[in-house]
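Researcher: Please predict.
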Amino acid sequence: MELLERDQGLRELGEAFAQALRSEGRLVLVAGEAGIGKTALVEHFLKTAQPAEVLVGVCDALFTPRPLGPLRDIALQWSDPAPLDPETDRHRLFSSVLRYFRQRSAPVVAVFEDVHWADEATLDLIKFLGRRIARLPALIVLTYRDDEVGPRHPLRSVLGDLPRASTSRIHLEQLSESAVRHLANDVPNAVSGELYALTSGNPFFVTELLASSDEGPGHAARRDSRARRAPRRRRA
């Protein structure tokens, strides 16, 4: 699927990475509703992030979140995952991560996906690194669903405490009708006006409906309706 109407987000990520190359680290928040293309934007940017060591970890929608889930994913990409020993004191662990970022031969781009599902330890790590990021050769990218972060959500207070001078925010909007029409140009049976009305320009729903267009518009409409009614896991 072609990446449309995301030039501004890519430009902001590129500018933040340029600062990381000068050891003036940045933290970039990429927010938007489910299916809006946060991961697609970040993956597209990562293809251009050279030279850099890219580390990616995710938070999962588990009833019992993995402690430091994204960091455990990232540690699997390290040559020595010993710092993530369960017996390691959290403060020593955070210092080990800080040391790792400082000692790399190339800048580090660390991506934490879906931090609206992060556990408390991961939120502490984000706050810890965020307060020190300006002096690191590193770019930290956090993706999250802002429509699931209510006033009492623990992530909200963490994001509010991040230093403004070294933090950038990217909010992804729905695609315009012209962008949806462009994506539907070469797909048989795709009626772009109907497609936009059904999806409101959400890239995930556009992709799903285009993929199922050969099954007929009625099937596609029912599929989109079921997707929009599916309950989301929310946190207070």
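Model: The CA atoms of residues 93 and 126 lie 13 Å apart.
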